[in-house]
């Protein structure tokens, strides 16, 4: 199975001190920074855009894992690539030609990833795996749009299916990950863990990241 990695989501950082939030995550042992981009159309919330990716990339050395919760990702790819995104996740539910958009991300030298919402059937992404259009799959374990929601356990079945199909893929889980849920996600084959509110509310983020990593490895 690919390497276990912890990705703090800066959606849960203090927006008045975002650069410090990125540096704090890196110093605490984060493997990547997860940047949640929301357009107010695909999801009922607006967060931030490519300039925040640029800021994060300028402040830390770890990769930028960029989650595009936008209706038309194809219109914004270049801006996110130029800003310093390493992985770009698009939603299977977005209004775009998915293979074409994933191919465009790869052609620009970045890692393409596909994301699916809790209620979206796992079969919808089979083509992405069979054709290796993606390096990473992100399973949403909350309804996208907001941090701090509760983990939805029924998505675990989808994770297990994806892991059975593709032992090579980076399998990420996003939403409600904390010290109570990380082991459940690990048991169904996830190896990348996004955690926002849980990590940023800690006094000792390094200890919390180390604990998540340890539980995921067991
Ligand atoms: C939700 C975002 C998540 C969110 C996770 O739409 O995609 O990345 O920041 O937040 P927590 O860890 O608080 O559930
Ligand atoms: Zn996310």
TrEMBL record:
GO terms for cellular component: cytoplasm. CDD domains: RPE. Gene3D superfamilies: Aldolase class I. A divalent metal cation binds at residues 34, 36, 67, 174. GO terms for molecular function: D-ribulose-phosphate 3-epimerase activity; metal ion binding. Pathway: Carbohydrate degradation. Coiled coil: none annotated. It catalyses: D-ribulose 5-phosphate = D-xylulose 5-phosphate. Binds 1 divalent metal cation per subunit. It comes from the Bacteria. Pfam families: Ribul_P_3_epim. It is an enzyme of class 5 (isomerase). Keywords: Carbohydrate metabolism, Cobalt, Isomerase, Manganese, Metal-binding, Zinc. Its EC number is 5.1.3.1. Substrate binds at residues 9, 67, 145-148, 174-176, 196-197. The keyword Manganese applies. Its cofactor is Fe(2+); a divalent metal cation; Co(2+); Mn(2+). The keyword Manganese applies. The active site is at 36 (proton acceptor), 174 (proton donor). One of its GO terms (biological process) is pentose catabolic process. NCBIfam families: PRK05581.1-4, rpe. Catalyzes the reversible epimerization of D-ribulose 5-phosphate to D-xylulose 5-phosphate. PANTHER family: RIBULOSE-5-PHOSPHATE-3-EPIMERASE (PTHR11749). Belongs to the ribulose-phosphate 3-epimerase family. This is Ribulose-phosphate 3-epimerase. It comes from Pontiella desulfatans. The gene is rpe.
């Amino acid at each position: 199975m690919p390497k276990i990695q912890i990705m703090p989501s800066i959606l849960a950082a203090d927006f008045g001190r975002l650069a410090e939030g990125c540096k704090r995550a890196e110093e605490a042992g984060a493997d990547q920074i997860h940047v949640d981009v929301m357009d107010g159309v695909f999801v009922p919330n607006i967060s931030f855009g490519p300039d925040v990716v640029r800021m994060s990339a300028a402040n830390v050395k770890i990769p930028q894992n960029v989650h595009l919760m936008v209706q038309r990702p194809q219109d914004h790819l270049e801006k996110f690539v130029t800003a310093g995104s390493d992985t770009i996740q698009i939603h299977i539910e977005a209004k775009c030609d998915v293979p074409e958009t994933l191919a465009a991300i790869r052609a620009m030298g970045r890692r393409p990833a596909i994301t699916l919402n809790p209620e979206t059937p796992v079969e919808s992404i089979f083509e992405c795996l069979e054709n290796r259009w993606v390096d990473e799959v992100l399973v949403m374990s909350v309804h996208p749009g907001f941090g701090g929601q509760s983990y939805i356990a029924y998505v675990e079945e989808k994770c297990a299916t994806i892991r059975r199909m593709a032992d090579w893929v980076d399998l990420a889980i996003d939403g409600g990950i904390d010290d109570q849920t990380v082991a459940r996600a690990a048991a169904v084959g996830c190896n990348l863990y996004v955690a926002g509110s849980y990590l940023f509310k800690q006094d000792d983020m390094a200890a919390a990241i180390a604990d998540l990593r340890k539980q995921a490895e067991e």
